[in-house]
Amino acid sequence: MDLINFVENMSYDMYFRLKHAAETGKWPEGTEAGKEQQERALQLIMAYQAKHLESDDILTISSNGEIVTKTKRELKDSFANSDDAIARFTDL
């Protein structure tokens, strides 16, 4: 199976496993992920993010494979226009 088909059919659970391995160097069950496995996992999660995820992260990978960054203003605007509830703390 080629990379494009694999990423198009990859489940969110598989994405999470690969992301965990790339970030921590271990698979979710605790076994060690080798250096090459980490590198491949990183490539796959970047491809998955580009294909499937809409993200509010500062840095993402677009569907054409380019790195997308947001300015501080763009981030503030996206948070201001979001319907998601955010916990706010005030001084007592």
From TrEMBL:
Pfam families in alphabetical order: DUF1315 (PF07023)
Listed name of the protein: DUF1315 family protein
Species lineage: Bacteria, Pseudomonadati, Pseudomonadota, Gammaproteobacteria, Alteromonadales
